């Protein structure tokens, strides 16, 4: 499709497990296992799932912060994993990454102003004389007081540091941002500020986001389409309203019913899943979810369900749907 | 009815390089038998410090309780000896924490760690304690209990470890269980399992629970009564239904409005402006002043006291002063 900014095709990222005396590869952790989806220009695509589902690895492999094992990532038609170092470097400013904890990605001895301007100078995007002005402009845009420009990272609160993380990404004037759990470490009142900032920036700058989160209420608020991951695979993909009002996959249903709602005494039918997510080093045969699925049938233990389109733009991998 | 826990005017201060931090500032709190009270608030509001004060676990090097009374089952815990306090902890008073991995000993088996308080407090034989440990592991919903008793913490998942922590906590049938963010580090499907387990324990053994959390969804699910804290102070106390239906304090209102809720999407989220004040530079004004959209002149000069509305609700806000005094 022409409208697609990003296309992910059968992406795989495996990590070898070594063992034995000779340190040979004796197996693989399939962190991302045959994942395909596309993101349209200007949309916010959400990836949800529990810890260990492979959502962050997917995000990082898309930006080629990690090398893929197999598959293809096309960003505006460019095969990201086929680029050489120089070409990749030239593409970097257009795709940016925001971390959960921006503090750990900031040098404690570098003033914020410098940290924000660094990449602009490095990539030669602006002459030195204009960098500071641009830093101040973006700081204001991201809700940071411009007189804080000469402060050090430790002088900022959690919410302000996340604003710095966002400012650093915006600085490069990107088309696409992967935001990895950007509000998970924040308190509710600050979280709302940052969520609104993401929405405002998107509108002003026509940004496209891949928003990775385990928090379904935040994802519902921000995302236009959502993919649900489990043990490295996508189990369901749907536009927001369809997914939240009428989830198809048993895992999505369980996930949604597990979210505690701030409505006391409300009786809900809750699907409490038994047990834990199995280890990605040794995933179950057939459908990866079958060990915890309340509706499991024989076929689920034997055959991997295809990830197929069940109606326009709705995909699900389940034998029972 | 006498309360199981009655905290009066408790203040716990921490020392810091920038000055004294009033982590808990004149706290009043009550927990009745069989009741779940949730303390809710954001990071640094003093909710954990309140629980640690109650357990007598504030490290001397960092801070201390400077005033107040902590009554538990007819005894003032500030006046009991260290030895007596040690007998209470893990026995009548038990606690579970956010990170089970860091509260368990990595070189002892799960079974040994469950047996320890049982042998210590109930004076039973090793064999009886062993049997009880296996029973408890089953009770918290872990299959293959005998095998699990022989395993070490690193062999279990986060959700299982939290179940083990709960097993240890309930091993001596405590009268009060303090749970400090027990599900915050867990995935939502595992959180649902743990919350269900705590509800079941409460129902079956009538254990009172003091539940500390920042998650309003968890509050709605667990609490009978809610205490909202901000910057070391209690700003609102209310039965759970009333709090969510008609929050009184502007901070509670703001918190509820700024949380995205499943299937109730709004175009724009409300957000409380600004951030929590620096705890070392608090003055005479209301601590929420800078972030409040309904503030009055008096809020700038005088801190509002926590007033009892007579309907089971308390609020510390000048907006209700007239309403409350008129009602009396």
TrEMBL record, chain A:
Q: Which domain of life is it from?
A: Bacteria
Identify the SMART domains for this entry: AAA
Where is each ABC transporter domain found?
Answer: 6-256
Which residues constitute the signal peptide according to the record? Answer: none
Give UniProt keywords alphabetically: ATP-binding, Nucleotide-binding, Transport
Task: Supply the PROSITE patterns for this chain.
Answer: ABC_TRANSPORTER_1, ABC_TRANSPORTER_2
Which molecular function term from Gene Ontology is one that the record holds? ATP binding
Q: InterPro entries from the entry?
A: AAA+_ATPase, ABC_transp_ATP-bind, ABC_transporter-like_ATP-bd, ABC_transporter-like_CS, Oligopep_ABC_C, P-loop_NTPase
The similarity annotation says:
Belongs to the ABC transporter superfamily.
**Protein name, entry field:** Peptide ABC transporter ATP-binding protein
Organism, by scientific name, is: Brevibacillus formosus
Name of the encoding gene: oppF_4
UniProtKB/TrEMBL annotation, chain B:
Q: How does it sit in the membrane?
A: Peripheral membrane protein
Annotated membrane-spanning segments are none
Q: Where is the ABC transporter domain?
A: 5-256
Q: What are the subcellular locations of this protein?
A: Cell membrane
Give UniProt keywords alphabetically: ATP-binding, Cell membrane, Membrane, Nucleotide-binding, Transport
Which GO molecular function terms does the record list?
Answer: ATP binding; ATP hydrolysis activity
Decide whether keyword Nucleotidyltransferase is in the record. Answer: no
Looking up Pfam families in the UniProt record yields:
ABC_tran, oligo_HPY
Q: PROSITE patterns from the xrefs?
A: ABC_TRANSPORTER_1, ABC_TRANSPORTER_2
- Tell me the CDD domains matching this sequence: ABC_NikE_OppD_transporters
A GO CC annotation recorded here is: plasma membrane
Which coarse location class applies to the principal site listed for this UniProt protein? membrane
Q: Which InterPro entries match?
A: AAA+_ATPase, ABC_Ni/Peptide_Import, ABC_transporter-like_ATP-bd, ABC_transporter-like_CS, Oligopep_ABC_C, P-loop_NTPase
What GO biological process terms does the UniProt entry carry, in alphabetical order? peptide transport
Would the keyword ATP-binding turn up in this protein's UniProt record? yes
* Family per record: Belongs to the ABC transporter superfamily.
Indicate what this protein is called per its UniProt record: ABC transporter ATP-binding protein
User: What species is this protein from?
Assistant: Brevibacillus formosus
Instruction: Read off the lineage from the record.
Output: Bacteria, Bacillati, Bacillota, Bacilli, Bacillales
